[in-house]
User: Fold this.
Amino acid sequence: MFGLTRAPDFSQPGLQWFNVEHPLSLTALRGKLVLLDFWTFCCINCFHTQPVLRELESRFPEELVVIGVHSPKFDHERDPRMVAQAIDRYDIAHPVVHDPDMALWDAYCVKAWPTLVLISPEGRVIGQLSGEPHPDLLPEGIGEMIERFFSMGKLRPRPLDTAPRVVAGGRLRFPGKIKRGPDGLWALADCGHHQIVLLDDQGAEIRRFGSGEPGHQDGDHPSFNGPEGVAIDHDAIYVADTRNHLIRRVDRASSVTTTIAGQGWRGGTLGDAAPALQTALASPWDIDVGGGILYFANAGSHQLGALHLERGLVWRLAGCGAENLSDGDGDECLLAQPSGLALCPESQSLYFADAETSALRRLCLKTGRVETLVGAGLFGFGAANGPLAQARLQHPLGVSVGGGRLFVADSYNHAIRVVDPATGQVSDLNHLTGAMDLCEPAGIAAAGDDRLLLSDTNNHRILEVDLRQGVVRAWAA
Assistant:
């Protein structure tokens, strides 16, 4: 099939293009090697593919053109405005075509996210790869193909004109998780600025950590890369340095940053206890700390892990590494991109937002078993309130515990959801008055029984929710 099949053209009506002035076509790209990246912005594996694509674009700027084909899973991802936000958030500079009805997905017989399709300079399909590409083997293979096509006289290298959106800066950019320390101060992952912010209880900045440019430098002048999660205690701010696949520690007294887990590249599945600095992590998305243990959501391997802060060991808490929704013992159950954590020492529980199954789940720290409170599987999502078994979320990213209830940042429903384990009911806070025009909230934190702070991520601000008065206001923006 490959090499004989003419590639379906992607210049079809009804498709919206990003990062180019005009829609692209195979005819216009004749003489260039074309790599189609079928992706959707909820997908952690698609997220892991982007650095490999950037490397290819850097090495072969005139011979190869990468085109992202956005093929949505969730209803929320069909909205082109949300696609534009994702392109900004993940710094995607190559052309992207939004395919909300999956027309190109079907035309290219794609079955999984991500899938890469390679098209020859003559416009024929010559290869297809499902899953994350190998960061070394794919560039090596592309380089060999470019040499071959060049020697055959079929390659006509030339630059491609792109027009990436110019995104205005602000005090915050795509903020992630926010957590309160025991002294009443707040730590915030300012993901889009690659920084960590320490704030007082009125939302005023005390200090920022990080150069503002992506990197992995330790010491007095640290750098981070897209940190999504934080935790804070009396001594330190802990950072889920997501795109670096690291966990970092910022000493609150000296402001010195050290790496305490991970090796700086995407790891595989977690297992038995092993030295933290010799264990590669996979996109840690959130963390929480208590009793000398740092708990982390290892989103890229669909697992929960633990780090013993004194002994420097990491181990698997839950998830066998396969992606789905299945309860049971921690080493056998299935998770799907856990992205938000809330530790509740009183009930010996670690609650987590399992994003890809649109689920709220609980790990019992005493028995090691996982149970699902809300959620029905990889494609069971919605916006329904009511009894736990019938309620539905859509790709939640944050969870917090307060006043005996669970508060969920229901990201793709642009909502705050309330789960009451005592009554077995799910509700929302849509009745609140104030600045509640949310867009993909990714972090939430309860401060007592009557107050919440919410990362309104795509609006680049933190909101304060007064539950007693039923009022919302901008707290940091």
